[in-house]
Design a protein that fits this description.
Blueprint lengths: L1 H9 L4 E6 L5 H13 L2 E6 L19 H10 L4 E3 L3 H4 L18 H4 L3 H16 L3 E5 L3 H13 L5 E5 L19 H6 L2 H14 L5 H12 L5 E10 L13 E9 L2 E8 L4
Parallel strand pairs: 1-2, 1-4, 2-3, 4-5
Antiparallel strand pairs: 6-7, 7-8
Helix pairs in contact: 6-7, 9-10
Amino acid sequence: MQKICAALKRKGRTIGFVPTMGALHKGHLSLIQQARKDNRTIVVSIFVNPIQFALHEDLKAYPRPFKKDIPLLQKENVDFLFYPQAEKMYPENFRTSVEVKVMGKVLCGVSRPDHFCGVATVVTKLFNIIQPDAAYFGQKDAQQATIIRRMADDLNMPFKIKVMPTVRDTDGLALSSRNVYLNSQERQDSLVLSKALGLARELIRHGQRNALCVINRMKALIRTKKTAKIGYIAIVDSRTLNPVKIVGNNCLICLAVRFGKTRLIDNLLTRGE
């Protein structure tokens, strides 16, 4: 893969890269479509990265519908699929990791302390293999996208990180590979996430700038759903992930809520609300 991409670069072909863990949905496809608009060549990776999963998490259960993913990539005219095996990415003598300090230890990092180190490490490896001109990520995974942007800037990675809008189902639920784990009641209850973010937007538009007040109203709404268990709701600076007391522009309203055994995340970026 590295040799192929190097040869493409020598020919002057721009490369757009979309890293995924498979179980592709319309959110992934929207990233591929944007990459196609911007670049001559599209590379997509499918790799369920073991080092971003804790021992108690769902690595073995994570959906891997590889045979269903392939036709979706073909339909989008993806040029190359990079599908490495874990033992190739992390051979026996692998000893190096990448960590973005502080930013990986807040929000989702509180309950998943090694997760973002695993993400940063695998993304760095993928970037070094593909050497893209631009890499594409979804806004739904806002903390991940923020950390990757910071990492690329800090380490002088010579390409663009593009974060594209969250893609939602018709009922408002953010698309996620983990949505398949929800039973019918949990799926219905999970709609409260987008409703809570909508409530936050309306509160801010009507002048409520106290972050704690907005968070408490969101918590009250989510707690009306029996299957919902709140992990966190936070309002932070979208560039630093530091908490804010007063909501302004470029704040990230983010949450993690468990429905049964399924943990879902969602967020809203304030822009002149």
